[in-house]
Amino acid sequence: MATSKTPVLPEVNFSDWGDIRYLHLGTEWVQGSMKLDAPFEIELEYVQRMMAWLLFADPKSVASRHAMQLGLGAATLTKFCRKTLRMRTTAVELNPQVVSACRGWFKLPADDPKLRVVIADAAQEIRKPEWQGTVDALQVDLYDHEAAAPVLDSEDFYADCRALLTEDGCMTVNLFGRSSSYERSLEKIAGAFGADAVWAFKPTREGNTVVLAQRAPSRPKREALAERAQTIQTRWALPAPKWLRVFKPLNPTLTRPSGP
C-alpha cells in the first residue's frame, strides 16, 4: 500500500557579511537578507521591486489594506508591510524552521492582531474560503534550496492567486532562473490574469525578474505613475522613481516588457 511521505525540508542557516545578514537553506543561495542596523528596511533590489503594487494603491489607503506573502524568506516583506506600512499582514511558509529562524535571527515580531504567520503548503492554504477576495497585495517568492525555478508555477496556481485578490488588488512574483523558465512562467501568469493585466521589470543584475499582475487591468498615465512613485519614495524610502525606467506593461508576444 502506498503511503504519503513527509517532505524532507532543508536545513536553515544564516551568514553575516559586513552589516548584512543572509538566510540560506543549506546552500550558498541567498533566500533573504537583513541590514543588521536597519532590520525593517528592504536591502535587496528585487525585494524592493516586490513592493511595486504600491504604484496602483492610494497611499492613504495602504494602512487599511491586507498584504500576504507566500514564502517567508528572511521575512523582509512581512516585516516591511507590518511595521513600516502598518498593514494587516499574513505570511504562509511551509518550513517551520524558517519561521523560527526569522524570529530568532531576523527580527520577525510575534503574531499580533495585524500579523499572522501560517505554517502550511501555500498551494493548499490559498484555496481556503477565508482568504478569497481578501488580499490587496499578494507577494509570491517560492523557491527551494536549489533556487532553480519557482516551486509553485502552474496556471492553476496563478488562477488561485488571482482569486485571493480584492478588485483592485495586485500580485507580485519573483521569477529567478533560466530565461526559458521565465518565459514559461510569464505565459502561465498571463493565462491566469490576462495579458493586459501583467507588467514586468527588466531583470536585476542578479537575474531576478519581478512580474506584477492586477486583478482588474488598468493603465495609469505616465504622469500619474511618476507622481505616485515620488510619494512612495518620500513616504517609505523605496526607490520607486527608478522603477519606472525598467517597469512596463507586457507586450502582446508575452515575452518581454514593452517599450524601450
From TrEMBL:
The keyword Transferase applies. SUPFAM superfamilies: S-adenosyl-L-methionine-dependent methyltransferases. PANTHER family: THERMOSPERMINE SYNTHASE ACAULIS5. Residues 1-219 form the PABS domain. GO terms for molecular function: transferase activity. Keywords: Polyamine biosynthesis, Transferase. It comes from Variovorax paradoxus (strain S110). This is PABS domain-containing protein. Pfam families: Spermine_synth (PF01564). Belongs to the spermidine/spermine synthase family. One of its GO terms (biological process) is polyamine biosynthetic process. The active site is at D141.
